[in-house]
Amino acid sequence: MKKDLLDKILNDNERLAIQMFVDNEVQREAVKKVLLAEIYYNGVLKEGEAADPLRNFTLGLVSNLGDRLRNEALGEQLRAAWEGINMLEVAFNQLSIYKREDEPKKAKDNPAR
C-alpha cells in the first residue's frame, strides 16, 4: 500500500499516533507479538504442559473439518489462513512508512580550537 493512499484515509492525529507507535520499538513488537501469538505459537510444546496437538491451527482444521472436507478444500482453508497471516504481516510492515526519520546529528564545535 502506498503512503499517498494511507494519507487519504488517515487524518493528522491518526498519522501522528501511528508514528509514535512505530517509533516505540518495544511497544510495536509487543503489539505484534500479541496479534500474532495464536498463529505463531499454536501447537508449540512447552515444558510442564501436556502436549495438545489440536492447538496447532493446521491439525485443528483437519480434526474439526477433516471428515466434511476433501483434501483440496482443506488445502484451500490452509491457503486462506496463510493469506490472512501474510496480509497482517504486510500491513504491519507498512506502518514503517510513518517512522520518524532521524535527523543527522550536527557535529559539536570543538572548544579546543
Structure description:
- The chain has 113 residues and is an all-alpha fold.
- 61% of the residues lie in helices and 0% in strands.
- It is built from five helices and no strands.
- It has helices at 3-9, 12-23, 25-41, 57-65, 71-94.
- It is elongated and about 80 Å long.
- The mean pLDDT is 80.
Proportion of residues in helical segments: 55-70%
Most strands sheet:
none
Query: Into which percentage range does the β-strand content fall?
Result: under 5%
Series of secondary-structure elements, N-terminal to C-terminal = HHHHH
Uncertain residue ranges: none
Alpha carbon gap, first and last residue: 51 Å
Number of strands: 0
Mean pLDDT: 80
Q: In terms of structural class, how would the helical and strand content be classed?
A: mainly alpha
Radius of gyration: 22 Å
> What characteristic shape results from the CA principal axes?
elongated
Number of helices: 5
